[in-house]
C-alpha cells in the first residue's frame, strides 16, 4: 500500500541525558478494562501497514527516495503554503521564541499519513539547534503505564511486550502498526515516552453521571481547577459531535450532551496536567505531545489547558487529510481556502480513502 510519505532520516541523534523515573498514580495497570477508547469514540477500522524496517534501513530509504508530493503545510504566521520539507525551518523559526517547551501534534487516529506527520515533527524537534532534550507524550498510554514505557526505552521489553503490558487492544484499540514507527524512533534515539491519558472507565463514569455524580472515591482524583465554562470550547465540542449550534440549550438530550462535554473536559484537563507535571519534573526539556486533532483545533481544549497549567504556550500542528488536485505538475490540496485559525501549522495530507 502506498502511503505517500517518506519517514524522516533516522540517523543517530546526539547523546541524550539519562531520563528520570516517574511516580505512577491512580490505579494499577492490570485488571479488566472495558470499554475501549476506540469504542467510546466509535472509530473506524484501520488499514494494515507494511512490516517495519530497521533504523538503518529506514534511514537509507529516507535519504534515497524523494519526499511525498502530497504534503503541504499552511504556516499561519506567514499566511502561506510551504512544502513539508520546510518543517525544520519553521520549527527553528518559532520553537524557542514565541513557543519554547511544548509542541502539540494532532492526529486522525486511523490515518497513517497523520502519524507520519507526527513522526516528522518529533524528528524536527529532536534536531533543533538549542539541543534541548526531548520527551514524547502519548494520549495512547495512561499515566500509570510510564513504568512500562521506561522499560521499553531502556530495552528491557519488546514492542510486543509493551503492548501486552499496557493492554493496548483494550485500552486504545487502534492498529499498533500505525504507532510503532514512532515507538521505535523514540527507543532508537533514547527519547523518553510519557503516558498522558487516564483510564477510559473514569471518563465513562463522567459521561454517564457527570462530574457532580461521580462517587467520592473518584472525585479525589479529578485534576484541580477544571474549566468547564469555556463557551467557545463547548460550541466547538458540540460541532465535533454533530450538534447544530442553534439547538444548544434547547436539545431534549441536553443533560446527556453536557455530561459528554464534561467527559471531554476531564480528558483534556488530565492530559494537560500530565504534560505540566512532566515539564515540571524534567526542567530544561521539551515535550512533543501526540493527541487527537479534535483536542487541538482552535487551541480551545488541550493547548490552552497546558498553557494555563504550565505557563508554556504550545506550538500546535493539526493534520488535515483532504482530496488533492494537480496543476501544471504540482499537487496541491483541493480546498477553497486554508483553515487559518485552527493551529500554528496546518498539515494538509492525503485522505485514508486515497491510500488504498
From TrEMBL:
InterPro entries the UniProt entry points to? Cofac_haem-bd_dom
Q: Which residues are in the Haem-binding uptake Tiki superfamily ChaN domain?
A: 100-306
- List the CDD domains hit by this protein, alphabetically: ChanN-like
Gene3D superfamilies hit by this protein: 3.40.50.11550
Q: What is this protein called?
A: Haem-binding uptake Tiki superfamily ChaN domain-containing protein
Q: What is the lineage of its organism?
A: Eukaryota, Rhodophyta, Florideophyceae, Rhodymeniophycidae, Gigartinales
Amino acid at each position: 500500500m502506498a502511503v505517500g510519505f517518506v519517514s524522516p532520516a533516522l540517523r543517530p541523534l546526539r547523546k541524550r541525558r539519562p531520563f528520570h523515573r516517574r511516580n505512577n498514580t491512580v490505579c494499577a495497570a492490570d485488571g479488566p478494562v472495558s470499554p475501549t477508547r476506540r469504542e467510546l469514540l466509535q472509530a473506524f477500522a484501520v488499514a494494515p501497514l507494511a512490516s517495519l524496517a530497521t533504523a538503518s534501513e529506514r534511514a537509507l530509504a529516507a535519504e534515497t527516495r524523494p519526499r511525498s508530493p502530497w504534503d503541504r503545510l499552511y504556516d499561519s504566521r506567514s499566511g502561506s503554503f510551504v512544502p513539508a520539507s520546510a518543517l525544520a525551518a519553521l520549527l527553528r523559526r518559532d520553537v524557542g521564541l514565541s513557543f519554547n517547551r511544548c509542541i502539540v501534534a494532532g492526529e486522525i487516529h486511523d490515518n497513517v499519513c497523520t502519524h507520519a506527520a507526527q513522526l516528522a515533527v518529533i524528528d524536527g524537534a529532536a534536531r533543533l539547534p538549542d539541543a534541548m532534550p526531548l520527551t514524547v507524550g502519548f494520549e495512547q498510554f495512561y499515566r500509570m503505564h510510564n513504568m512500562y514505557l521506561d522499560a521499553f526505552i531502556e530495552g528491557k521489553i519488546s514492542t510486543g511486550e509493551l503492548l501486552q503490558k499496557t493492554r493496548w487492544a483494550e485500552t486504545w484499540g487502534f492498529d499498533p502498526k500505525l504507532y510503532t514507527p514512532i515507538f521505535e524512533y523514540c527507543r532508537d534515539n533514547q527519547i523518553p515516552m510519557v503516558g498522558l491519558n487516564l483510564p477510559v472507565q473514569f471518563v465513562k463514569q463522567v459521561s454517564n453521571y457527570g462530574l457532580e455524580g461521580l462517587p467520592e472515591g473518584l472525585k479525589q482524583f479529578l485534576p484541580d481547577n477544571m474549566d468547564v465554562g469555556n463557551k467557545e470550547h463547548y460550541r466547538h465540542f458540540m460541532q465535533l459531535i454533530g450538534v447544530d449550534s442553534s439547538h444548544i440549550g434547547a436539545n431534549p438530550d441536553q443533560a446527556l450532551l453536557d455530561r459528554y462535554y464534561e467527559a471531554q473536559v476531564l480528558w483534556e484537563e488530565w492530559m494537560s496536567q500530565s504534560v505540566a507535571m512532566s515539564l515540571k519534573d524534567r526542567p530544561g526539556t521539551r515535550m512533543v505531545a501526540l493527541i487527537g486533532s479534535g483536542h487541538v483545533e482552535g487551541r480551545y481544549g488541550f493547548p490552552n489547558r497546558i498553557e494555563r497549567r504550565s505557563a508554556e504556550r504550545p506550538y500546535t500542528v493539526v493534520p488535515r487529510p483532504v482530496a488533492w488536485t494537480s496543476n501544471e505538475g504540482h499537487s496541491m490540496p483541493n480546498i477553497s481556502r486554508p483553515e487559518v485559525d485552527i493551529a500554528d501549522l496546518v498539515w494538509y495530507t492525503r485522505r485514508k480513502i486515497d491510500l488504498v
